[in-house]
Amino acid sequence: MQGRKVIITGVPGVGKTTVVNEALKKLKSEGVEYQSINFGTFMFEVAKNDNVVQDRDQMRTLDRTVQKRLQQRAAQAIAQITGNVLIDTHASVKTPTGYLAGLPEWVLREIMPDTIVLVETDDDQILMRRLNDETRSRDKEGSRAIGEHQQFNRSIAAGYAMITGCTVKIVINADLLLERAAEDMANVLR
Ligand code: AP5
Q1: Closest atom of ligand 1 to CA, residue 44
Q2: Which of 110, 138, 142, 149 is 20 to 30 A from 11 (CA-CA)?
């Protein structure tokens, strides 16, 4: 049976990995299985082997051509995976020279997703989550810049839908409402 491919996106710190993990717990109890893949981890493994970075947060500062090469190798590896696949990644990545499409045409044509999910919440909630997360080197930017990035992600997701015919779903992960976000995410995956 042909599996489903669902791409999960959201600006750094919005909590997409947290929501996905909660949704997958619900689905497991119902017998629905997904293989969960982190696109950044695939890219990081390649980047580490090539000795171009030491930690995953350095990747978005690499030269654009290097980031594109890493994207392509990750997409090719992910395209080989069969069954229901959930891909945790970015609609766009903020680089020093501007937004880089996370799913350019050559990545989309490898993966051909059924649905792209945008995990969003209020800009100032994301700012607070980044400030409270000491495990990562998050970009230092204000809530206005975070808002611009969320807006850009909606625009570029519309472009991805035009290329692939996939659907685009927005899941809101508001403070204190993780359970609701996880249920919305589980409904996309059921
Ligand atoms: P990646 O590993 O995906 O980094 P990220 O965006 O920082 O994602 P995380 O999973 O760490 O954060 P999150 O938003 O899921 O938040 P979390 O659940 O931890 O990617 C790493 C790098 O790979 C990228 O920077 C890029 O360079 C590269 N990359 C990836 N894909 C690429 C692509 N397609 N093209 C090019 N490059 C690519 O939660 C954050 C915090 O919020 C936690 O403290 C959590 O407890 C809290 N939280 C979550 N939900 C709630 C809630 N409802 N209420 C209160 N707090 C909450």
Answers
A1: 23
A2: 110
